[in-house]
């Protein structure tokens, strides 16, 4: 995003680390608390072991509110990658590959069951948004093709029930189309997310952080950010199934 790109404090690498931390906080609530402690799914080793339920639901809400800021940061950085990559098709292919790699860990961490067809991981949403951007990039003078691709991607996101669904795809694409004016892109994206779900109002800190982006990539470990997603989900599932029961038993 071109305007005000070099006056900020945060590099792309810093924003990615921030998004990962926020996502981890969110998933501690969505996985460890909601799946393995609070909801007491029949196949959870912690079913029925929860003490103060109201307290832990409040903790969960705080974690989920904090985590709302992760998605807009990931969307913004995806758009930056789409603009600056030398091969957007390869970039999109990598996103699709990690979407499939991440689906088993996603289902296990957020449902303790596989397969879970009711919800697909966010990599699918990112890949669909990136695919729409690819078509826009290659449709100069024929914007209807980009709009058709956007519509198809949004519908597919809803049909496949990807994380954030059509709203997520629209946010990604709007950030790309409005990239020349970062403030406008972020404002429109925030409103769109909030309309899609009131909990997304808590994503505001993430959007404000993006105003501090300085346009620099920063030092980034190769592929770490891709692999962190499925690995941390598997880790949460393992903790929920094997570590938490042991800890609670000892308590």
Written account of the structure:
By secondary structure, the protein is an all-alpha fold. It has one domain. It is built from ten helices and no strands. It has helices spanning 12-38, 53-67, 70-84, 88-111, 122-137, 143-160, 165-177, 182-196, 204-210, 224-250. α3 (70-84) crosses α7 and α5 (122-137) packs antiparallel against α6. The longest helix is centred in the N-terminal third of the chain and has 27 residues, at 12-38. It is globular, with a radius of gyration of 19 Å. The model has no long low-confidence stretch (mean pLDDT 90).
Set down the secondary structure blueprint.
Layout: H1 12-38, H2 53-67, H3 70-84, H4 88-111, H5 122-137, H6 143-160, H7 165-177, H8 182-196, H9 204-210, H10 224-250
Rg over C-alpha atoms, rounded to the nearest angstrom: 19 Å
Label the overall shape: globular
Q: Determine the N-to-C terminus distance.
A: 52 Å
The main sheet comes to:
none
- Computed structural class: mainly alpha
Number of domains: 1
The secondary-structure element order is: HHHHHHHHHH
Average of pLDDT:
90
Please give the number of β-strands: 0
How many H/I helices?
10
| Fraction of residues in helix | over 70%
What is the strand content?
Answer: under 5%
List segments where confidence is low: pLDDT < 50 over at least 5 consecutive residues: none
Transmembrane segments: 116-136, 148-178, 190-213, 225-248
Keywords: Membrane, Transmembrane, Transmembrane helix
Pfam families: TraX
Protein name: Conjugal transfer protein TraX
């Amino acid at each position: 995003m071109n305007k005000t790109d070099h006056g900020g404090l945060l590099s792309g690498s810093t924003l990615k680390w921030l998004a990962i931390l926020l996502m981890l906080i969110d998933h501690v609530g969505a996985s460890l608390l909601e799946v393995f402690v609070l909801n007491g799914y029949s196949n959870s080793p912690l079913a029925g072991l929860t003490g103060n339920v109201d307290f832990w639901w409040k903790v969960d809400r705080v974690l989920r509110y904090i985590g709302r800021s992760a998605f807009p940061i990931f969307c913004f950085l995806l758009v930056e990658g789409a603009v600056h990559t030398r091969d957007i098709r390869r970039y999109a292919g990598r996103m699709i590959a990690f979407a499939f790699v991440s689906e088993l860990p996603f289902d296990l961490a957020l449902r303790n069951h596989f397969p879970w067809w009711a919800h697909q991981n966010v990599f699918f949403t990112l890949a669909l948004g990136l695919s729409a951007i690819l078509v826009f990039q290659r449709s100069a003078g024929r914007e209807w093709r980009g709009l058709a691709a956007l519509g198809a991607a949004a519908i597919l996101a809803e049909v496949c029930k990807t994380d954030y669904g059509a709203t997520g795809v629209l946010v990604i694409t709007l950030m790309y189309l409005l990239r020349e004016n970062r403030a406008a892109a972020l404002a429109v994206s925030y409103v769109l997310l909030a309309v899609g779900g009131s909990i997304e109002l808590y994503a505001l800190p993430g959007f404000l952080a993006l105003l501090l982006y300085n346009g620099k990539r920063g030092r980034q470990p190769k592929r770490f950010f891709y692999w962190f997603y499925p690995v941390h989900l598997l880790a949460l599932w393992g903790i929920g199934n094997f570590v938490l029961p042991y800890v609670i038993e000892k308590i």
